[in-house]
């Protein structure tokens, strides 16, 4: 029991420390909010695609592609989305708040907060299954977000714009490039491989520090009830339903931890950017990201501890 407690704490503690460093950086005035936006953009456009490429580069895709985990993840996402849609439309009257709440419940920060959990247990070099699932789930997140936010702001869904947004997503570009390299057997010179590996390792710590810099606790008053629903739905209800099902279906080790990362991670940081740009409830979206990120440090520890103690990884 004590050893499982220590392992669970070690998996979450680096994330807590890195976000705390970000908070201290902001309070010290080293980086202001405008500069932080540029840093966030740099990590998203430059480092994350390299990380996605690195996790797939040189792998045997026939061994990496696990159709049972893909089927479960996609099916679970569909159920989560439909459940959030039905529940939120019954309890919330404001269309803009509806869009932001639905997005917060189903869309997890799989990359920034989820991948570090897998890496802490299995290392950055042992995550091809995780990278493959990210390259499938993240586009689905984006498609559902665009459709949801357009519908609840009264706009028309434009398939062409959705497709273009997916194609231009840096994470998708990195994933597709990694898949192409794996299929063709493409090999880079060793110095470039070393550089790629170093950039991939740097990506997540930088993103967590940047997330810490972005924390702002001053705008919670207006959206209290909806914020609680979104955060509890994302961090408690979703993993409480779908992680036991995954365990019963036989998922173990890196597959189970990957699903834990998908279901128990906080609200995606990019959901705020998308909500703000698509005339949704940007304040609710921002607070959902902030508070789910804070509380996920505790809830993810609990989920890790429970399932580690039960022997699922």
From TrEMBL:
Subcellular locations according to the entry: Cell membrane
Membrane topology field: Multi-pass membrane protein
Keyword list, A-Z: Cell membrane, Membrane, Transmembrane, Transmembrane helix, Transport
Transmembrane segments: 6-26, 38-57, 69-88, 100-123, 129-152, 164-186, 198-215, 227-250, 256-275, 284-306
The family this protein is said to belong to: Belongs to the auxin efflux carrier (TC 2.A.69) family.
Protein name (Swiss-Prot/TrEMBL): AEC family transporter
Taxonomic path: Bacteria, Bacillati, Bacillota, Clostridia, Eubacteriales
């Amino acid at each position: 029991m004590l050893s499982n407690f220590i392992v669970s704490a070690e998996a979450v503690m680096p994330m807590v420390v890195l976000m705390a460093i970000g908070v201290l950086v902001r309070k010290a005035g080293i980086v202001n909010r405008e500069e932080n936006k540029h840093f966030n953009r740099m990590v998203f456009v430059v480092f994350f695609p390299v990380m996605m490429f690195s996790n797939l580069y040189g792998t045997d895709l026939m061994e990496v592609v696990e159709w049972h985990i893909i089927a479960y993840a996609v099916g679970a996402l569909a159920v989560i989305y439909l459940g959030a849609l039905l529940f939120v439309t019954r309890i919330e009257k404001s269309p803009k708040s509806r869009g932001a709440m639905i997005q917060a419940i189903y869309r997890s920060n799989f990359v920034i907060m989820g991948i570090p959990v897998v890496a802490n247990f299995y290392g950055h070099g042992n995550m091809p299954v995780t990278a493959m699932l990210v390259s499938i789930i993240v586009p689905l997140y984006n498609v559902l977000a665009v459709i949801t936010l357009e519908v609840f702001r009264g706009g028309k869904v434009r398939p062409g714009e959705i497709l273009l947004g997916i194609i231009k997503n840096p994470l998708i570009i990195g994933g597709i490039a990694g898949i192409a390299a794996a299929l063709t057997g493409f090999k880079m010179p060793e110095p470039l491989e070393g550089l790629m590996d170093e950039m991939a390792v740097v990506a997540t710590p930088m993103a967590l520090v940047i997330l810490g810099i972005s924390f702002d606790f001053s705008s919670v008053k207006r959206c209290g009830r909806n914020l609680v629903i979104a955060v509890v739905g994302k961090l408690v209800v979703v993993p409480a339903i779908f992680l036991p099902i995954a365990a019963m279906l036989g998922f173990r080790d890196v597959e189970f931890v990957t699903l834990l990362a998908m279901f128990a991670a906080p609200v995606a940081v990019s959901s705020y950017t998308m909500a703000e740009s698509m005339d949704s409830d940007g304040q609710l979206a921002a607070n959902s990201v902030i508070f789910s990120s804070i509380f996920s440090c505790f809830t993810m520890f609990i989920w890790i501890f429970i399932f580690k103690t039960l022997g699922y990884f």
